[in-house]
Amino acid sequence: MDKVLEVKDLHVSFKTYGGEVKAVRGVTFDLHKGETLAIVGESGCGKSVTSQSIMRLIPEPPGKFDGGAIIYKDNDLTKLKESEMRKIRGSDISMIFQDPMTSLNPTLTIGDQLTEGILQHMKLSSEQAKKVAIDMLDLVGIPSPHVRLKQYPHQFSGGMRQRIVIAMALVCQPEVLIADEPTTALDVTIQAQILELFRDIQKKTGVSIILITHDLGVVAQVADRIAVMYAGKIVETGTRREIFYNPQHPYTKGLLNSVPRLDVDGADLIPIGGTPPDLFSPPAGCPFTARCPYAMEVCDKMYPYKTKLTSSHGVDCWLQDERAQKLLATK
Amino acid sequence: MLGYLVKRIGSMAVTLLVIITLTFFLMHSIPGSPFNEERATSEAVQKNLESYYHLDEPLYVQYFLYLKSVATFDFGPSIKKSSQTVNEMLGRGFPVSFELGMVTLIVAIFSGILLGIIAALRHNGFIDYLAMTVAVLGISVPNFVMATLLIQQLAVTWEILPVATWTSPKHMILPTLALATGPMAIIARLTRASMLEVLTQDYIRTAKAKGLSPVKIVFKHALKNALLPVVTILGSLAASILTGTFVIEKIFAIPGMGKYFVESINQRDYPVIMGTTIFYSTVLIIMLFLVDLAYGILDPRIKLHKKEGK
Amino acid sequence: MALRKHQEPQTQSSIPDDWFVPIKKNESDAEAVVRPSLSYWQDAWRRLLKNKLAMMGLFFLSFLTFMAIFGPIISPHTVDYQDLVNQNLSPSSEHWFGTDELGRDVFTRTWYGARISLFVGIAAALIDFLIGVIYGGIAGYKGGRTDHYMMRVIEVLYGLPYLLVVILISVVMGPSLATIIFALTITGWIGMARIVRGQVLQIKNYEFVLASKTFGTKTGRIIRKNLLPNTMGPIIVQMTLSVPSAIFAEAFLSFLGLGIQAPLASWGSMASDALPVILSGDWWRLFFPAFFISLTMFSFNVLGDGLQDALDPKLRR
């Protein structure tokens, strides 16, 4: 499959009052054409920072890009000038943020907010832009878009606003759509509708989606591939099937065990004990060591190598070493 | 919207009534009523006073008669200047004061907002510190001190601007500057603070994610929201500018209402004090009302969902 | 860390076998407390100390207070002694800040003016505080209908042009220190009452207050232990910032001739008296009262700003 976007060994840190937080510590992944890649992890694992780095929306300072590359259409986005980056934002790569209540400007009409992106990136008259906006509102399922174009955000419900936000991200037909927790702030029934909308839109436009979430239920519904992030690193990647049915990293297993399941009888919810490590001074070894039920001496000393299980399934864990397999067998 | 307007106008009327009542009874409570014969300077004035204030009637009748004449914008005669009515003095002084006040307000609003935006965009930079230090100084130096310092430096020592009066644009510079510094500083500080707050909002990030230029983000997305808190204080700023005109007009010998007002205070010309107070209060209350309306127009959330609040 | 890096094996096979054994966990490591906890006030104080401008303000205020108390005492001249031989003298070793048109010593009068200004400012702020806390506290705590009507009253009073009312009262009551303070507090407490009410309303519904209520804590204790510490921050800031506005109002009135009357001195009346002579270049007449009133207001303003930053719980880190 075609790679649309490649992230290579991305490092991002933040200067804060208490010291430097290493939020993203060597993240590598690809995004293929027309797929949905889910990046999953607890809050503070660096998934939002990763997505905002792709858009170069990390405020600098306090944020700082420490290394790596983000390749889009043979360009390294990290090396582009701000003015060149602006041409990509919203037209080639768009982004949707978590809270639809605050993502829209309360003092501008929906129509104004929808068309300004079109006018910025495409050579269209404001009449034509309006038509595009109306079509797009129609696509995301807003009834009577003609009328609603003149209304303000506070006149819409939360679910409707998220539809508008999605429409706003799609008006310039981007190749990549980054959705940062797009359903977290919504009611469960609305969540399902929005996820349905994502699938629908992907079918119609062929857009590649990076879905940032902590909700494995959402992931199970829409993701083609999954990257599990922990403490600023991607610890396991695989197809949805591989991650859900054959998880290898103890953290991935822990995440799956902490989600209620209706399909398995008598499955207990098992929370993951402890808290993620302090990213002011991240551990040299595997960051999950302190919480891992299988932790070994080596885990504390060295970060594990990546093990490729299949062409799509990879995991960073010492348990993949054959010497550890014996240990597991005795357990 | 209509209900709100009616309520607002009702509350304005109550405030105005309180002011008129307060003014009337306060003036009549002065020992040895200021309106009795001994104080009047001439026969003619005394006649005027009696016919206007109905001094032979009981106090409450006088009060209602006064209310009636105020309602028709008739503030009666002056005690000290026998041939003049308060209305004539207002008619002569108000246009000048209005000009001074408006020019000051416009200067303060534009320069304050500009300074605030620049400081916010250069947050924690040298320009920010400089602008905010100037703003704190602007708030700390009283307008009459500012006026006298300006006269001493620019008019007396350097002789580049005229010392006083209100005859040409050149004459307007010093009074306007002296009066505008304080309000400008207040607006600059508020604009900066609210701009910084707005720039951290999610919708600004959304705008950035659309690929909009920084100029567009600041002026289209941030400024309007950032200015909402500034609009709310314009009413009280107008009040402080208005009272500021008293001293500024006194210092620069500008023939405005404030100058008459200060004179009437010093000469204890009570009808003029009453008339001017009521007139000023009306102007201020109307200003506050206009500011409220402006806020409603700027913020689409206010108009339709009055109850919902924030 | 660096040491460990050197020891790190280069290939997977070179990792020693004995590293692949279960780790011995050290429980206490995980629970280490990172930083000492400071109380709200300690933390606020620590942050205030770091604010250079606010510290400058505090220093100036101490200096001004000191001089207001001792300035007129150490001066060999009295505030109202007229020396018609020595009119309008520029500053010298005899008259440190010069003399005015009646030969009165400007140094003595300046510090006497400081007494008036500081007294008016602090007295007005204290009275505003008292009325405002009681009024706002009752409105906020009672809520409902009581609150509604109390707020209506405030709404009407808020529409009153503040300095006009002050002028009117001064005209009626005749100029004196008491008149000024009375006039200033007539509308001055409104700001404080609004803040207190807002705070009380907000905090009343906070979960920790509800929590104490469910534990059966008495109302008095809730107010003392929960409401007061949380409302104190904004109240202190409001008080600090209302001092300069009272000082300004006094100077403004005195400048208009409605405030402190001769032979006593106030910065406002001194500046007013100096107006006719600035054209002749007697700069000291205006400079000293103007400078010190500006310095006082500046100090209170920056101290208030600093307190605002220091006491804002949201900014705590």
Describe this structure in words.
The complex is a heterotrimer of chains A (331), B (310) and C (317). Chain A is α/β, with parallel strands linked by helices and 331 residues long. Chain A has a domain at 3-31 and 41-87 and 224-329: Rossmann fold. Helix content of chain A is 35%, strand content 24%. Chain A contains 13 helices and 12 strands. In chain A, the strands form 2 sheets. Chain A has an 8-stranded mixed β-sheet, with helices on both faces. In chain A, strand 4 and strand 5 form a beta hairpin. In chain A, helix 4 packs across helix 5 and helix 5 (126-139) packs across helix 7 (158-170). With 310 residues, chain B is an all-alpha fold. Chain B has a domain at 86-298: MetI-like (MetI-like fold). Chain B contains 12 helices and no strands. In chain B, helix 4 (86-121) packs across helix 10 and helix 5 (126-140) crosses helix 7. Chain C contains 12 helices and no strands. The two termini of chain C are 28 Å apart. The longest helix of chain C has 37 residues, at 106-142. With 317 residues, chain C is mainly alpha-helical. Classes of the chains: A alpha/beta (331), B mainly alpha (310), C mainly alpha (317). Chains in contact: A-B, A-C, B-C. The interface between B and C is large, with 45 and 42 residues.
Condensed summary:
The complex is a heterotrimer of chains A (331), B (310) and C (317). Chain B has 12 helices and no strands.
Figure out the total of helices of chain C.
Answer: 12
What separation lies between the terminal Cα atoms of chain C?
28 Å
Please state the CA-atom Rg of chain C, rounded to the nearest Å.
29 Å
Shape of chain B: flat
Q: Count of helices of chain B?
A: 12
What class do helices, strands and sheet pairing of chain B give?
mainly alpha
Q: Oligomerization state of this entry?
A: heterotrimer
Series of H and E elements of chain B: HHHHHHHHHHHH
How big a fraction of the residues of chain C is strand? under 5%
Q: What do the pLDDT scores of chain B average to?
A: 81
Average pLDDT of chain C, to the nearest integer?
Answer: 77
How widely separated are the two ends of chain B?
17 Å
Number of strands of chain B: 0
Q: What would the CATH topology of the domain at 86-298 in chain B be? A: MetI-like fold
Sheet-strand content of chain B, in percent, reads under 5%
SSE series of chain C: HHHHHHHHHHHH
Ranges of chain C where pLDDT stays below 50 over 5 or more residues in a row are 1-6, 27-35
